[in-house]
Amino acid sequence: MNGYAVRGLEFGYTGEKIFDGYDVDLPAGAITALIGANGSGKSTLISLLIGLLTPSGGGVEPRPVRPALLAQRTEHIDGLPLTVDDCVRMGRFGSVPFWRPLPRSDKALIGETIDRVGMSAHRGRRLRDLSGGQRQRVMIAQTMVQDADLYLLDEPSTALDVAGREMLFELLREKAAGGAAVVIATHDAEEVAAADRVVDLGGGAETLRAARPARSTS
């Protein structure tokens, strides 16, 4: 798969046009950073890509079949009586319906991913009892256990320390190396520097800067 192409995208809120015939490529095998000032459309573009918002014109080609989303705000799940294990397991619901027992391979994947985000010692704790950084690690794990062709992350390093940021980008690079398109919306200079490509939503219809060569997916 070559990735995704946004073509002729049109969208706006009441009285405000955010995208007016916008084009951008989101290639497979690369991490693309979306940058721009607040209000430039970073989170809006992610919501359009995942299907939470509907464009008034244009769209993404091909339509994502297996997207995975790490949202900027998780209040909708933070207040539920879910443990770390429960939350990460939800990331497998697209492959294994919740009413079916998890195969051994899925259980292993969940355990390995929880370990990689540094939350093995907290698997039985509830999300609401965790710190902000710990909750973010859990949500990263939930995103990473999904079998996706397109990973969309909105401000993914929120509340993470230096070790957490390194962990996050190690996981993202693995997804890109596996052939997925990875897109992050960010204000963070370190995330921008670590990306393969940068799209500046405040710089016109399409402004691209290669941070370093895109990885081969062959």
Can you characterise this structure?
With 218 residues, the chain is an alpha/beta fold. The chain has two domains: 1-66 and 150-158 and 179-218, P-loop containing nucleotide triphosphate hydrolases (Rossmann fold, 3-Layer(aba) Sandwich); 73-147, no CATH class. The chain has seven helices and nine strands, in the order E-E-E-H-E-E-H-H-H-H-E-H-E-H-E-E. Strand 1 and strand 2 (16-27) form a beta hairpin. Helix 4 packs antiparallel against helix 5 and helix 5 (132-144) packs parallel to helix 6 (162-177). The longest helix has 16 residues, at 162-177. Mean pLDDT is 87; it is low at 204-218.
What's the short story on this structure?
Helices cover 31% and strands 25% of the residues.
Itemize the secondary structure elements and their pairings.
Layout: E1 3-13, E2 16-27, E3 30-35, H1 42-50, E4 57-61, E5 67-70, H2 75-78, H3 84-89, H4 104-116, H5 132-144, E6 150-154, H6 162-177, E7 181-185, H7 189-194, E8 197-200, E9 208-210
Parallel strand pairs: 3-7, 3-8, 5-6, 6-7
Antiparallel strand pairs: 1-2, 1-4, 8-9
Key terms for this structure?
7 helices, 3-stranded antiparallel β-sheet, Rossmann fold, globular, 218 residues, alpha/beta, 6-stranded mixed β-sheet, disordered C terminus
